[in-house]
TrEMBL record, chains A, E:
MF GO annotations: ABC-type amino acid transporter activity; ATP binding; ATP hydrolysis activity
Gene3D superfamilies (UniProt xref): P-loop containing nucleotide triphosphate hydrolases (3.40.50.300)
The organism of origin for this protein: Roseicella aquatilis
Segments forming domain ABC transporter: 20-254
Name of the featured protein: Amino acid ABC transporter ATP-binding protein
PROSITE patterns hit by this protein: ABC_TRANSPORTER_1, ABC_TRANSPORTER_2
Pfam families registered for this protein in UniProt: ABC_tran (PF00005)
Automatic annotation (TrEMBL), chain C:
Keyword annotations from UniProtKB, A to Z: Amino-acid transport, Cell membrane, Membrane, Transmembrane, Transmembrane helix, Transport
Location of the protein in the cell: Cell inner membrane; Cell membrane
Family statement: Belongs to the binding-protein-dependent transport system permease family. HisMQ subfamily.
Name recorded for this polypeptide: Amino acid ABC transporter permease
MF terms in GO: transmembrane transporter activity
Membrane topology according to the record: Multi-pass membrane protein
Species, as recorded: Roseicella aquatilis
GO biological process: amino acid transport
Positions of the ABC transmembrane type-1 domain: 97-388
Keyword Nucleotidyltransferase belongs to the record: no
Superkingdom, taxonomy of origin: Bacteria
Pfam (any one): BPD_transp_1
TM stretches of this protein: 30-49, 103-123, 135-155, 189-207, 227-249, 269-288, 370-391
A GO cellular-component term linked to this record: ATP-binding cassette (ABC) transporter complex
UniProtKB/TrEMBL annotation, chain D:
GO CC field: ATP-binding cassette (ABC) transporter complex
Major subcellular location class: membrane
A GO term, aspect molecular function: transmembrane transporter activity
Keyword Cytoplasm: no
InterPro entries: AA_ABC_transptr_permease_3TM, ArtM/GltK/GlnP/TcyL/YhdX-like, MetI-like, MetI-like_sf
Similarity remark: Belongs to the binding-protein-dependent transport system permease family. HisMQ subfamily.
Protein name in the entry: Amino acid ABC transporter permease
GO biological process terms held by the UniProt record: amino acid transport
Membrane-related topology note: Multi-pass membrane protein
Pfam families in alphabetical order: BPD_transp_1 (PF00528)
């Protein structure tokens, strides 16, 4: 399996230094081994889609990347900074990595605009006026500038998720992580959000996205990673992975999600 | 503020503060209680004013700190108050183990019983089986049990902390008898719509010398307090009153001359002004006047608090 | 099935984390912060402690619990156990503790009942009943408990004196000395009969459970009352008769100043109990109301649609669900009753606080006295909490 | 869009004229029937309660108004005593109301505590209005409390100095309650955060504090503050009695409020913490901007409940000889002339407590409704 | 309109005595007139589907039938018993009428099995063993026997609704009422529940079902009743009602729900 990994990783823009490097990362929850020797190399500007059955460690992997979870073995290097117990390194990385959650996690007591400006003002120490201009710019990009004064509770799920994306973008991150951004949405709203993400992908942003939206993966992903039981089982271009699965597990998985639709 | 090491200097501390801090009862009719205007009045309060006058020549340079039965001693120990004029019984253990001194007994009291006349009881010995109202946490409670044991009397206690509630319990008939110091009984009795309905029984079951208190080891301040009390007594003995104290310049009696400081000498020995006594009597009156002003109206007789030459216990050493 | 496919070599245990000595390390910071805070708190405590020791020494105040074995000499009006002023402080304090427990336990039971009734009354369809319960709750909650206690005590004192005592039932007297009830001249036969009654109650209870279980199993209803009558009626009477059927009642009668004989419910106890129960019931009523409202209307309807009777709906469906919402705040109220009983000092019921106050006044052992009060209340509070938490866990809802 | 078509189309459909329900369904009669007399048991209960209410009301009006004595010439209470309980002696309030409200504060200076009470009420009112919920409100608080301190103590601006021992009555109650809660609140927030901390020692300390303080009655703490506190300090050092009581109340209220706040913290979804962390906010930024604003909003009703409880509990300082409202009321009737009119005084004092607590409880209900409306759109 | 009513009612098995008879039923909530002269005759074994816009009184009608609401004018006769204030009559009727709610209303503190056996044991006084056998039988019928020991909170929505149906069946009712049993469910779960109901309909049970599932109505309904503003506006066979609506209101309504799908 490792040959495949090497091959694919090196295939993706081998010249640039990697934006994210996971090297034999292992993680346990208590005694439960949830990540096993996960190695992944994401080049700058690369767009990676992660899929796999429930409980396979997809969320855990990307949460390790901005250290919402700590890994116990192996190395994670993000944007040239190695994740360790060092708090300064952590701060630096969180500034460079934006994250969008399945359940949006907007701050309900702040307006949309305040949601977007909070971190730039307090973390990046940006002047308020500037932060607001930036926020409006990104809100326009996700096509909801007119909602800026409303509260999250007044928006539909799709709109909320787009705000969440704008909020992350306002920190001008180099890397964006998405954890099943559409799975809490109604079918009609999924499209809104996917469109936004496609637009984002076109700007050349480095992205890792956990999703089961095949169409999206095919359209934007440079690479698809399939995880199962805490391991990366297969990876490759969407075409390789979807049309020509190598392992039984992936075949089974694909048959399931295709049947589900 | 003052530490016991500095306790020897309460006098100086008071002087430099410009005010005497006096611990009083939170409310005891006749002895200490704020009136409708919030001004403290009563027999004990006059002692605070007298000491303040002695030191400053001004009876109003007093701050009153209401103290409860529980916190009165710590208030004094910790320097929260300078002097305690708060119906406190002088006992050996308090004198020795609490770090206090009792410079003067300003009121001789004893514990007695009051019953309703309608009950037909004439003597405390007839109280077998009675329900008796008593305040907790003071010597009263122990006196009562001691007395009951020595007389083989069984009784049911009703133990209520605050005096008002205790009195109203007695008045309402919750208890057959009410026991506290005789002065308190008299005060309660006179406050009743019909005092004649209540009878103070003849037995006095304890000695209750109610004394002023100061911190131990502060002889100078204790002297001031003690001699202020004696001044009030002597003034009564020699007929010096609020009204005539100004006009005694030519009084032939040498003792009177010494008291009013005509020839000087005694005041400064206490660290006070020569005319301290005149000012005190002018402001407060003599012992008898104070007594008549506050205790007589609520029905307390002089009894043991009469002058020694009237058959009482109040005796002032000579001013010389 | 998934477990079998995992390569056993991969079933590794997590490694231990190494600690790096750097201020940037979160754990180092954590340790430093903790050492700092604990150090500061520790220093303050140590400082206060050493001051206290020093002050006690300077002021020649003796410490220690030796005073507990000294003679108390303090009179106690009512006591669950034998007590006379010649007993020790320890016994006096025990009497106080038992008095506290007495009012707390009775108060908890009664206020739970009253509070439940009022809480349900607030949901009543009778407008007057609902409104009055609401007014009751508002008024009771917004007035200081102390004031209420004094109020009830004053009311009870305005009852007639012992000589004019009311006699609602012959042998029962109500006066400002309390409620006097006749009581048996207690003998072993009575104790044994009581024991038999208890035994009978237990037997009946078990039988009822059995009968119900069997009825659920086979659908045949069984009579319970014959067994109940036999076990709780006939058995004690038999025991009592076998032991010679002693029957001399101790009737209260006016002798001298007071009633002699019989048992007494004192006005102090009663006022305290009344005040506590009425006050706490106001709070419990709100808790119960919230609990019942928290059970969705659909549950009532579903149960009714199945044909269950209102009583069955309440017992089988609504109460079990409401209890989960009710129990945690109820625990706080039980704790409050226990602690509020210390206001007894104000109206002359001699609970642990009252007696400990007197003790520390007489002996000057302030620290020990207060330590005893706090220890006693802490023990009671923690026991109640533990019990209620256990009960709460037992009835917790099974979710995913 | 589809709504529009539905509306217009539906409007064209002729509506059948609705019949009004049978007479038994509407109007006063129907209301009475459904609400008061829906069954014979209900009717019986209604009649019984109505009878009792009417009787008590009449009794109270007779006692409190018809037969009452409103004032007597200087302390001659014979007129009151002659009533023998059939009428209230409001003369005791007429005579003593200033003492009850202001205690032993110098009589001529009573305008100062009176002004303070007004300031307190104004402060509460302003704080209660949501449109004033801004940062400046903290300044208003500081300014008002300072003004109150200046007014009460005096000693500057030509106001004569009044030592703390002379303060009393309603002002003391308001001071103890306001300062108590204003200071207990931040303490409670810290303790609640500490109790959820990952650092075991800090967590243990907070748990210890909360459980120890909550497990004992307030009066034992007050007692300790009053009797034993001087022993804890070095010789000669002492702290004002009011301050000691205040500290005891703060510690006690802090433990209770901490549990309330903790409830709010626990109710907050984990996602909020994670989102804040992922944005790179530091612990205190996260706590201050994201966690606390939401958590506190969640627990406003229990918070106000606790406030009400402590407002009333300040009356317990009577145990240590501070003249709060209730103690002042009790002291007012020590004077022999006025002994025996406790009921009138207690009613008055109770009414004052009631006004404050009832206002708080009504306010909390409306606030709860308002905030909830805000939450769901 | 009344001619239509008479006609259809008599068309449905005119020989048998009616299982449910509503005769000019009127109901007010306060001053609001929510049922206006509703008359309906349901024969034994007949399957009636009720539809109509929101607020038209569908729920109220069927809730009146098992007296979760009381009507104020007119007669309701169920299984030969007239609804009145008589409590015994009420008990008798509730035993014969099973009801399934939109929001399932399972008892969350009881297991699935206990949910099903509660009423048979306490109302029908059935031995527990027997009740459990019966419950397992019906749980098997709705195809979730393996969930018997779980609690409702552990089941999906579709499974919960099937339990609710089984629970009602365990009382062996002669008549089943359904109030929008599928509208709180996800699309995939709707099918599970509708299948169960179709199966039930095939056993010949008398059913009244409030639903907007046209497919279901076409498949099983003997009669479709269309209500609007508290009145029965039209009724007839599914074919009559759906293909050939007479009134403007029904036409409008049909256009809406068809557009919605
Ligand atoms: N905080 C935690 N404590 C213990 N176990 C956890 C925790 N978070 C996740 N796990 C476990 O770790 C494993 C991987 O979880 P993870 O959330 O990464 O899966 P996932 O691939 O994202 O699944 P899903 O598609 O359901 O989101 C699962 O078995 C899960 O139960
Ligand atoms: N308990 C009640 N009190 C007052 N009005 C009510 C009550 N229940 C229902 N209504 C009113 O009665 C009318 C009919 O309600 P009903 O629930 O029967 O409508 P429905 O046809 O079931 O609508 P939906 O499709 O929304 O469930 C509505 O206008 C509703 O607002
Ligand atoms: Mg996940
Ligand atoms: Mg409906």
């Amino acid at each position: 399996m490792s040959e495949t990994l090497e091959y694919v990783a090196s295939a993706a823009r081998p010249d640039a230094p990697p934006a994210i490097l996971l090297d034999k990362v292992n993680k346990w929850f208590g005694a439960m081994h949830v990540l096993r020797d996960v190695s992944l190399n994401v080049a700058v500007g690369e767009r990676v889609v992660v899929c796999g059955p429930s409980g396979s460690g997809k969320s855990t992997t990307i949460r390790c990347i901005n250290r919402l979870e700590t890994h116990q073995e192996g190395r994670i290097v993000v944007d040239g900074i190695e994740l360790s117990d060092d708090i300064r390194a952590l701060d630096a990385i969180r500034r460079e990595v934006g994250m969008v959650f399945q359940s949006f996690n907007l701050f309900p007591h702040l307006t949309i605009l305040e949601n977007c400006t909070l971190a730039p003002i307090w973390v990046r120490r940006m002047p308020k006026r500037e932060a607001e201009e930036l926020a409006m710019e990104y809100l326009t990009r996700v096509r909801i500038p007119e909602q800026a004064k409303k509260y999250p509770g007044q928006l539909s799920g799709g709109q909320q998720q787009r705000v969440a994306i704008a909020r992350a973008l306002c920190m001008k991150p180099k890397i964006m992580l998405f954890d099943e951004p559409t799975s809490a949405l109604d079918p009609e709203m999924i499209k809104e959000v996917l469109d936004t993400m496609v637009g984002l992908a076109e700007t050349g942003m480095t992205m890792i996205c956990v999703t089961h939206e095949m169409g999206f993966a095919r359209q934007v992903a440079d690479r698809v990673v399939f995880m199962d039981r805490g391991e990366i089982v297969e990876m490759g271009t969407p075409a390789q992975v979807f049309e020509n699965p190598q392992t039984d597990r992936l075949k089974l998985f694909l048959s399931q999600i295709l049947r589900g639709h | 503020q003052q530490a016991p090491a500095a306790a020897a200097n309460t006098f100086d501390a008071v002087k430099s503060r410009g005010q005497l801090v006096c611990g009083v009862n939170t409310g005891l009719a006749g002895f200490a209680q704020p009136d409708s205007q919030g001004v403290w009045r009563g027999f004990d309060v006059e002692y605070c004013r007298a000491v303040a006058t002695a030191i400053f020549g001004d009876p109003n340079k007093v701050r009153y700190v209401p103290t409860t039965a529980q916190n009165r001693f710590t208030a004094l120990q910790s320097g929260e108050v300078d002097v305690m004029a708060r119906n406190t019984t002088w006992t050996l253990s308090r004198d020795t183990s609490l770090g206090l001194d009792f410079p003067a007994v300003n009121f001789y009291d004893g514990q007695g019983f009051m019953v309703k006349t309608a009950l037909g009881v004439k003597s405390a010995k007839e109280l077998e089986g009675a329900t008796i109202c008593v305040q907790p946490g003071t010597t009263t409670e122990q006196n009562l049990t001691d007395w009951a044991r020595s007389n083989r009397i069984k009784f049911t206690p009703v133990v209520i902390e605050r005096l008002e509630e205790l009195v109203s319990a007695y008045v309402a008939g919750r208890c057959d008898a009410y026991t506290t110091d005789v002065s308190g009984l008299a005060a309660t009795r006179s406050a009743q719509p019909k005092p004649a309905d209540h009878l103070i029984l003849p037995e006095v079951i304890s000695k209750e010398p109610l004394a002023l208190g100061v911190r131990q080891g502060d002889a100078r301040f204790a002297d001031v307090v003690r001699w202020t009390h004696f001044l009030l007594l002597s003034a009564e003995e020699f007929g010096i009153t609020q009204a005539n104290v100004d006009k005694l310049g030519n009084d032939p009696r040498p003792e009177v001359q010494r008291i009013i400081g005509k020839n000087g000498g005694l005041g400064p020995m206490l660290g006070l002004a020569d005319d301290w006594a005149v000012k005190v009597v002018k402001a407060i009156g003599n012992y008898g006047e104070v007594f008549d002003r506050h205790l007589k109206p609520i029905g307390i007789q002089r009894g043991p608090n009469a002058q020694w030459n009237q058959g009482g216990l109040q005796f002032s050493p000579p001013f010389r | 099935m998934s477990q079998t496919t995992i390569d056993p070599r991969l079933m590794r245990a997590p490694p231990k984390r190494k600690l790096r000595l750097s201020w940037a390390d979160e754990r180092i910071r954590g340790v430093v912060w903790q050492v700092l805070v604990v150090g500061i708190v520790g220093t303050i405590v140590w400082w206060l402690w050493s001051n206290t020791v020093h002050n006690l020494e300077v002021r020649k105040i003796a410490t220690g619990f030796g005073f507990l074995t000294r003679e108390a000499g303090l009179p106690v009006a009512e006591s669950v156990i034998e007590y006379s002023p010649t007993d020790t402080y320890l016994r006096a304090l025990t009497v106080g503790l038992l008095n506290t427990l007495k009012v707390a336990v009775v108060g908890i039971v009664l206020s739970t009942i009253l509070g439940t009734v009022i809480g349900i009354a607030r949901l009543s369809r009778n407008w007057l009943v609902a409104k009055l319960s609401a007014i009751y709750v508002e008024v009771i909650r917004d007035l200081p408990l102390l004031l209420q206690l004094l109020f009830w005590y004053t009311i009870l004192q305005s009852l007639p004196g012992p000589r004019q005592a009311m006699q609602p039932v012959p042998g029962v007297f109500l006066s400002n000395r309390g409620l006097k009830l006749p009581w048996l001249d207690w003998q072993d036969a009575h104790s044994l009969a009581l024991l038999a009654l208890l035994l009978g109650a237990v037997v009946t209870w078990f039988y009822r459970r059995q009968a119900l279980a069997k009825r659920i199993l086979d659908g045949q209803p069984r009579r319970i009352w014959p067994v109940a009558l036999g076990a709780m009626g006939a058995l004690p009477v038999l025991v009592w008769a076998a032991l010679g059927a002693p029957w001399t009642a101790d009737w209260p009668e006016l002798r001298g100043f007071n009633f002699r004989g019989g048992v007494t419910v004192s006005p102090e106890f009663f006022a305290l109990l009344l005040g506590l129960v009425l006050y706490t019931a106001g709070f419990i009523a709100e808790i119960v109301r919230a609990g019942i409202l928290a059970v969705p209307q659909g549950q009532w309807e579903a149960a009714q649609a199945l044909g269950l009777h209102p009583g069955q709906v309440l017992r089988q469906i609504v109460l079990p669900q409401a209890l989960r919402v009710i129990i945690p705040p109820m625990t706080s109220q039980y704790l409050n009753i226990t602690k509020n009983s210390s206001l007894a000092v104000a109206i002359g019921y001699q609970d642990i606080v009252s007696i400990a106050n007197t003790t520390l006044n007489q002996t000057g052992q302030a620290i020990e006295g207060i330590a005893i009060i706090m220890l006693v209340y802490l023990t009671i509070s923690l026991s109640i909490s533990l019990f209620m938490n256990w009960y709460n866990a037992r009835i917790a809802l099974v979710e995913r | 869009m589809s709504d529009v078509t539905l509306e217009t189309a539906a409007a064209k459909v002729p509506e059948a004229a609705p019949r009004s329900p049978p007479a038994s369904q509407i109007g006063l009669l129907a209301w009475l029937r459904t609400n008061l007399f829906s069954s014979w048991l209900n009717s019986a209960v209604t009649l019984l309660i109505a009878y009792l209410v009417v009787r008590w009301t009449i009794g109270f009006v007779e006692w409190g108004i018809v037969n009452a004595v409103w004032s007597v010439p200087d302390n001659q209470t014979q007129a009151c005593r002659d009533l023998k309980g059939i009428g209230a002696c409001w003369a005791v309030i007429t005579e003593k109301h200033r003492f009850i409200l202001f205690g032993t504060y110098p009589y001529e200076e009573h305008w100062r505590p009176a002004l303070c009470v007004l300031l307190f009420v104004g402060l509460y009112t302003v704080s209660a209005m949501r449109r004033f919920w801004r940062k400046e409100l903290a300044l208003v608080w500081v300014a008002t409390l300072t003004a109150i301190g200046v007014l009460m103590w005096g000693g500057i601006l030509g106001l004569p100095y009044v030592p703390q021992e002379r303060w009393g009555g309603l002002v003391i109650t308001l001071i103890l309650a306001t300062f108590g809660l204003a200071l207990a609140f931040p303490l409670a927030v810290l303790v609640a955060l500490g109790r959820r901390s990952r650092l075991p020692a800090i967590k243990a300390l907070c748990v210890l504090y909360v459980e120890l303080i909550r497990g004992v009655p307030l009066i034992s703490l007050l007692f300790m503050a009053s009797v034993m506190f001087p022993l804890f300090l070095p010789e000669g050092m002492n702290i004002d009695k009011l301050l000691r009581a205040q500290i005891a109340i703060i510690l006690f209220a802090g433990a209770y409020l901490a549990e309330v706040v903790r409830g709010g913290l626990q109710a907050l979804p984990k996602g909020q913490y994670e989102a804040a962390e992922a944005l790179g906010l530091s612990y205190w930024q996260k706590t201050g901007f994201i966690i606390l604003p939401q958590a506190l909003r969640l627990v406003i009703p229990p918070l106000v409940n606790t406030f009400i409880g402590f407002f009333k509990d300040t009356s317990l300082v009577l145990i240590i000889g501070i003249f709060d409202l209730l103690t002042a009321g009790k002291t007012a009737i020590i004077e022999p002339a006025w002994q025996g009119f406790g009921v009138e005084v207690y009613l008055t004092v109770g009414a004052i407590y009631f006004v404050f607590c009832f206002a708080m409880s009504k306010y909390s209900q409306s606030l709860e409704a308002e905030l909830n409306r805000h939450r769901n759109r």
